[in-house]
Specification:
By secondary structure, this protein is mostly helical. The chain is built from 15 helices and two strands. It has one domain: Farnesyl Diphosphate Synthase, CATH 1.10.600.10. It has a two-stranded antiparallel ribbon with strand order 1-2. Bound molecules: geranylgeranyl diphosphate (GRG).
Length: 297
Amino acid sequence: MSASSIKTIISSYSAQVDAQLESILPLASGPAEPLFAAMRYSVFNGGKRLRPALCFAAAEAICSSDSNTAKVAAALEMIHAYSLIHDDLPAMDDDDLRRGKPTCHIQFDEATAILAGDGLQSLAFQQLCGLSEVAPSIVVELISMLSRLGGCSGMVAGQAIDLAATGTALDLEQLKVMHAHKTGALIEASVLMGAVATAQASAQQLAALSEFARAIGLAFQIQDDILDVESSTELLGKQQGSDATNQKSTYTSILGLEQARSEADALYRRSMQALDCFADKAESLRAIASFIVQRRH
Ligand code: GRG
């Protein structure tokens, strides 16, 4: 599939999730106006919408996507946006630039940024609770997945491992564990929740999607590490070279650029194999996976 067709697929999913986000995020008015403005600022400031795209594409690998998929995708994007707001705070990575714009706490203030993250997190779960046309057992399964993979068994634990490791050198295995939690868990949630929301996914299909997501999640992180070395602040929309500045262990610092690239390639191939059982139904997932390893920002 050509690069422009991949972009077309991702844009069509983005349009659907953006419409959903627009409808659920509170308007920036009333006594809590700064909070709502900060939530909107952090959601609508130019994210690539990769997690929603994976959610839609996974639903299509099983059968088809629908309005419930858009709601699940919006919940995932709100969790992602909250994680970035909190990650950028002075108490964590202390970053001023995100997506080429001032980070939430710089644009607003620290207290508002903390609340915006909190508000987005709870709104994500509220969104899942409001799913219609799916059985209550599916809603509970989706809530359980997002709390497990986005919370202290997944992404939040990854962030804690990362913070605890600051200033120490991790070996490759420790780095993998950290990234499988910090970045990989929400990517896995995106794929699995898109499939589960269809109510038609078999255990075998979920296992294959899980394998796909784990491989592409790690490849995503390796590409992130490569871009931190190779790209520019302008293209990345965040400070280039920040991993080295913050003395963080990365795939490139441990393996070197060339080996990091071949590791990402190997993971990409593994992710493709995991999709074999879906034949043509997984074309969009394949396209997004190739975008992930080829992306320049
Ligand atoms: C604070 C609970 C908590 C978690 C933070 C995800 C995360 C954990 C921190 C982000 C730090 C970081 C830059 C990780 C590298 C991988 C990553 C998640 C990059 C950003 O994702 P993209 O490229 O972002 O999909 P966009 O801007 O396109 O939405």
